[in-house]
Design a protein that fits this description.
Layout (H helix, E strand, L loop, with lengths): L7 H12 L3 E7 L2 E6 H18 L6 E5 L4 H12 L3 E5 L5 H11 L3 E4 L2 H9 L9 E4 L13 E3 H10 L1 H13 L6 E6 L9 E5 H14 L7 E3 L7 H14 L2 E4 L6 H8 L3 E3 L2 H16 L3 H22 L6 H22 L6 E4 L6 H9 L4 E7 L4 E5 L12 E2 L4 E4 L4 E5 L6 E2 L3 H7 L6 E9 L6 E6 L4 E2 L5 E2 L1 H9 L4 E7 L6 E7 L1 H10 L7 H5 L2 H19 L9 E6 L19 H7 L1 H9 L3 E9 L5 E9 L1 E2 L6 H6 L1
Parallel strand pairs: 1-11, 3-4, 3-5, 5-6, 6-7, 10-11, 12-13, 13-14, 25-26
Antiparallel strand pairs: 1-2, 8-9, 9-19, 14-15, 15-16, 17-18, 18-20, 20-21, 22-23, 24-25, 26-29, 27-28
Length: about 650
């Protein structure tokens, strides 16, 4: 580590010197890709930082950022640091109430909003935020008639900064030079699975050391390309699109919109790509849907070569010996099937791919690796600056999350909980010393909240479940809901699942269907439906889900330790679990306590032996209005392996 490279602005200055004319950012707008070099990006960032000084930003001030992935928003992150402030990116799809909590909690004096939607959220709660002095907006559409007393266009702030360069230039340089390795780099809010989100304070040391170690682990380089589409409030996006991008000097590409993301992915062809399992699952679902509609010869060719890819593709990717004929056949498949498919998915150039956040189905994992895509798993969390474990090349498996990342130590305590410490370990939870102390001890060991174990032979970590969710059933057998939920979600027809069973005689489950996959199936089978609710309760859909549950039960039964977690009864819910309804976090993690309270009547029906349940559920519409939907749900019996009662009845 060079002594001077102790902050993101310092890395920016280095990149201007070394890669000044190379592209640092691209953005697609109105169908056209625009590009900024490192030199041009640095000028934009400095102008904004000077403009912030003109607005009165003081060292240590917190500045919230709300908006989708755009170069100007990333420039805002760095400009705030350059001016001595602390950037606080928030989820752009968060409701006004969630934003109000974060803005009030961190005491933000300024906010940078992407567009009218984000400005409106702030305006709706402004009366509860006496500390918020000024909002800067990026997209001016729809804001012309707003009161601009405390509202300024992003470009106007930059222009003011350029005009006042002589006045504030020395002060900006002083603040930039004064940034230290242990000063705060960013504050990110946790997803709030069990309560209010916590502000995780990460230092320059946390971000830069982690970015350096992880970049070297995967041999990332200045010529790499990424697509920045994940929420800017998520720690992964900050590491990939800021930390690693500034450490290595690679280019960050921002899609035009969520709707054009897949098209933009194909056009960019990233070499370094991260996506949560749900994205990979969705891509595979769409591929299979297209193949169902393909001609007979094309479908047969696809099935034949994909079977071969699953058989030998991972071995070829990992450099293990494969017979001459198998290799030749794989090359034929590359020309006829794998290559065109990877190009369609936008993954032709991926050299390093990662997935994390949830377990990914082994069939899905092997599908992509069979295509020759170097897809790997990592395990991490916000408090670790992402990386706890990674999978080294040639040691990639679907059932582990890899070995400790460089600089990371891992231990398993007597209860089975995973602990780690590393250079990326967070500084503290903002304004929450009790939670900080309960999570991180005096020696720097952090409790992950996950239960797992380290394989003796390989040194790989395997995660079982959230430690707080692992419990006992009434008969003393082990209960690990996520283990079963992940198996259920491996099926393209199932979007989400929630399993219950702690301290009970048996396990029951909620299931959400995937409307894209099931809706396409319905259309191909001439099954008419008018809504998600109607489709979810169709007899043939229920029969299909029953088959999936039975298959999962057979798999669970093979694990002697967890065989008691088989699902006995389940219900297909009439609505998708939704973050806006408080049922999921913004990162799509299940909020079990809230779901148990909200759907207590359905859970009671599952365990009381009822055949159906009439229920009423409150929902939140896109415009924030509340409503209620009513439904009668059919409760399903599942086939359970080794169920003595069922066998006796038969």
């Amino acid at each position: 580590m060079t002594e001077a490279l102790v902050s993101i602005p310092a890395l920016l200055a280095r990149n201007v010197a070394q890669f000044g004319g190379k592209p640092a950012y691209r953005e697609k707008e109105f169908g056209i890709w625009q590009s900024w070099t490192w030199t041009e990006a640095a000028e934009e960032i400095e102008a904004l930082a000077l403009g912030l000084l003109d607005l009165g930003i003081a060292p240590g001030d917190y500045v919230a950022l709300l908006g989708r992935n755009r170069p100007a928003m990333y420039w805002g992150l760095v400009a705030v640091q350059m001016a001595g402030g602390v950037p606080v990116p928030l989820y752009h799809d968060a409701a006004a109430e969630e934003i109000a909590y974060a803005l009030d909690h961190c005491g933000a004096r300024f906010a940078i909003a992407g567009d009218q939607e984000q400005v409106d959220k702030i305006q709706d709660v402004l009366d509860r935020l006496p500390g918020l002095e000024h909002t800067i907006y990026l997209d001016a559409r729809g804001l012309r008639k707003y009161d601009h007393a405390a509202l300024t266009a992003y470009t106007d702030v930059q222009n003011a900064g350029r005009s006042w360069r002589e006045r504030f230039g020395d002060e900006l340089q002083r603040r930039r030079d004064g940034l230290g390795y242990d000063d705060t780099c960013v504050m990110l809010y946790t997803s709030g699975t069990t309560g209010r989100p916590k502000g995780v304070v990460l230092s320059n040391r946390n971000i830069i050391e982690t970015s350096k170690n992880s970049s070297e682990f995967d041999h990332l380089r200045p010529g790499d390309e990424i697509l920045a589409y994940l929420p800017m409030a998520w720690v992964g996006d900050f590491i990939f699109s800021v930390g690693q991008a500034y450490w290595t000097g690679f280019c960050v590409n921002c899609p035009e919109s969520e709707d054009t993301m897949m098209t933009d992915l194909r056009e960019i062809g990233p070499t370094y790509y991260f996506a949560p399992p749900r994205v990979f699952e969705t891509q595979l679902t769409h591929t299979m849907i297209r193949m169902e509609d393909a001609g007979r010869i094309k479908k047969a060719l696809f099935d034949h070569f994909m079977a071969h890819a699953r058989k030998v593709g991972p071995d070829i990717l990992d450099g293990r010996p494969v017979g001459g004929w198998e290799t030749l056949k794989y090359r034929m498949g590359e020309a006829l099937v794998y290559g065109p498919l990877k190009n369609t998915l936008g993954l032709s150039r991926v050299r390093v791919g990662y997935t994390a956040g949830e377990a990914i189905g082994p069939e899905i994992f092997d599908f992509y690796r069979g295509l020759g895509i170097n897809l790997k798993q990592l395990y991490g969390q916000t408090e670790a600056s992402v990386f706890i474990t990674q999978q080294p090349d040639h040691e990639v498996r679907s059932d582990t999350v890899g070995v400790p990342s460089p600089g990371v130590e891992i231990r398993i305590d007597d209860s089975g909980e995973v602990f780690y410490r590393s250079p990326g370990t967070f500084v503290e939870y903002y304004k929450n010393p009790d939670s900080t102390a309960s999570t991180k001890d005096a020696e720097g060991w952090v409790a992950t909240g996950d239960a797992g174990f380290i394989e003796k032979d390989s040194g790989h970590l395997r995660i079982i479940d959230r430690a707080k969710d692992v419990g006992k059933m009434a008969d003393g057998r082990l209960f690990a809901p996520k283990y079963v939920e992940n198996k259920l979600k491996f099926f393209p027809n199932i979007l989400e699942a929630v399993v219950f069973g702690a301290d009970r005689e048996m396990c029951c489950a909620f299931v959400n269907i995937d409307l894209t996959a099931v809706g396409n199936w319905a259309e191909r089978n001439n099954i008419a439906y008018g809504s998600y609710q109607e489709l979810s309760q169709h007899p043939r859909v229920l029969e299909t889900i029953r088959g999936h549950v039975a298959q999962v039960n057979r798999s669970v039964a093979e694990d002697e330790m967890l065989s008691g977690c088989q699902v006995h009864r389940f219900v297909v819910l009439h609505k998708e679990l939704d973050a806006d309804d408080g049922e999921l976090t913004r990162t799509r993690k299940v909020r079990r306590r809230i779901i148990e309270e909200k759907y207590a009547d359905i859970i009671a029906a599952l365990y009381s032996g009822q055949d159906e349940i009439a229920t009423e559920t409150e929902v939140t519409y896109e415009d924030g209005r509340k409503g209620k939907i009513r439904a009668t749900l059919k409760i399903q019996e599942a086939e359970v392996v080794g169920d003595s009662q069922r066998m006796a009845a038969e």
